[in-house]
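If you are new to this repository, start here. Below is one unmodified record pulled from the training split, so you can see the exact layout before writing a loader.
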Amino acid sequence: MSQSTCKKVLITGAAGLIGRSVAGHLVHAGYDVTGLIRTPPKGKPPPFKYFVHDLACPLQINEHFDAIVHTAASVGYDYDFQTFKANNIDATANMAEFAKAKGLRFIYLSSTSVYGRVEGREGGGGK
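And here is the target side for that same chain:
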């Protein structure tokens, strides 16, 4: 993503492991970052503007962005299927539709959790 063509970035999951890292790098590089997070941060607030929003619900925001970096997801195995679907499938569909309606670049990031549990190994979102 070139800063000359993309200055305002909306990052979903900005309080999570991947989103927080991406947001930090973009802020450091001079981008105007807005984060979408599921719950208010505890402790020190992030170094960017943020909104608390449940991405399972369609996003209603009138602010202009040049791109969306979608990192929000529920990882691990502590979720029932409906919660997993709402936080992963529905949330991604809602953000993709929002990006399409606004004509925004849509960048989707995931993690190794998508591969599920690996027999005999920790990781992949497992316990």
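Two things worth knowing about this chain: The mean pLDDT is 84. The domain at 8-79+98-113 is CATH 3.40.50.720 (Rossmann fold).
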